[in-house]
Amino acid sequence: MRIEQITVRKLRMNLKGPFTTSFGTFREKIFLLVEVKDELGNTGWGESVAFDAPWYNEETYKTNWIILEDFLIPLLEGKEIEHPSEVNDIFEPIRKNNMAKAMVEGAIWDLYAKRTNQPLWKALGGTREKIEVGISIGIQPDIETLMSFIDTYVAEGYKRIKVKIKPGWDVEVIRAIRAKYPDLPLMADANSCYRLEDIDMLKELDDFNLMMIEQPLASDDIIDHAHIQKVLKTPICLDESIHSLEDARKAVELGSCKIINIKIGRVGGLTESIKIHDYCKEQGLDVWCGGMLESGIGRAHNVAITTLSNFTMPGDTASADRYWDQDITEPIVTVENGYITVPTASGIGYEPNISLMETFTEEKKVYNLRTLNTVQ
Ligand code: OSB
Ligand code: MG
């Protein structure tokens, strides 16, 4: 197949409520979508999980657009692609910018699955027909507010609760949750806000039987994480620190974590996600699929990757209606009793709702690629 056209859109969607992490508060999501088209007129969709500010990693939707226009599109021009696993290699000359690469690679996977008339999850090698889901709850103004969110989500059947923590919102919060819910599958995500000298606080968290502590230390660290994993019973899960299979291998060899959160965008696409998944399976580590407050397109990709056999822990791919008044796919991604039933339609299995998408679109650009068959 040849990619002949790429359409980029910048969308803005308001979150139903604020989402606060240790690094900042999201009230809206500004992000890019791409639609790729092949020589037969098949299309595929991808979403970038880069935010509008470089808080989580160094990318933003604007840097994604520049990388796409100046480097990724030129690399795709004139390329005959047999299988989407080749896209990773085509983008190899460009360092990092993983979220920019992943949005295009994901769209080409969707296109390929449609072209070969199979659901994306089957094309990826997935085996599950329904997936288990948890939910991530942001930092709240007070513990009562947090507890009422937890009550609601537990009643809705979510399979585990993740709470965001930061200095001043950690041990007391976890203690309060455990007092009410001694056996709830519970974890905490620090988004890199602690340092080695906070070890005593992390040891206190060790008493609460958490499923894991996610990314307690710096976003580029695997050394100090190995130091603390040695003294903690609670598994460390790495998110921000892992950008590739090589990073995963080094973290595992150092003993920096026992669990990896795979985010398709952070690792540069579905192909790299599969490689990390397979490596962790060999090494006996659990993996789960993280979230980046995605719209329906990115959410659909998360559902597809989670069907692989070593996604043994519930992910963060909660119901679309938890984030948005209206989401841009038909149907929207829905969680029932803690499960998402995986779609059977070809490709990502959720149709883009173009007319609704248009109402959230602030900019749009169509690129026609020079192809092998261009007659001079
Ligand atoms: O660290 O997993 C994270 C949201 C924004 C940035 C980083 C993270 C998160 C979440 C929410 O935890 C995941 C979601 O519900 O999409
Ligand atoms: Mg995280």
From TrEMBL:
Name a Pfam family for this protein. Answer: MR_MLE_C
- GO biological process assignments: menaquinone biosynthetic process
One annotated GO molecular function: O-succinylbenzoate synthase activity
Pathway assigned to this chain's UniProt record? Quinol/quinone metabolism; menaquinone biosynthesis; Quinol/quinone metabolism; 1,4-dihydroxy-2-naphthoate biosynthesis; 1,4-dihydroxy-2-naphthoate from chorismate: step 4/7
Question: Any idea of its EC number?
Answer: 4.2.1.113
Residues at the catalytic site: K164, K263
Q: Where does Mg(2+) bind?
A: D189, E214, D239
Q: Which residues form a coiled coil?
A: none
Mandelate racemase/muconate lactonizing enzyme C-terminal domain sequence ranges? 143-235
Q: From the UniProt record, list the reaction(s) this protein catalyses.
A: (1R,6R)-6-hydroxy-2-succinyl-cyclohexa-2,4-diene-1-carboxylate = 2-succinylbenzoate + H2O
Q: What keywords does the record list, in alphabetical order?
A: Lyase, Magnesium, Menaquinone biosynthesis, Metal-binding
Its domain of life reads Bacteria
Q: Which SUPFAM superfamilies match?
A: Enolase C-terminal domain-like, Enolase N-terminal domain-like
Q: Which cofactor does it need?
A: a divalent metal cation
Give the protein's biological function. Converts 2-succinyl-6-hydroxy-2,4-cyclohexadiene-1-carboxylate (SHCHC) to 2-succinylbenzoate (OSB).
Question: What is this protein identified as?
Answer: o-succinylbenzoate synthase
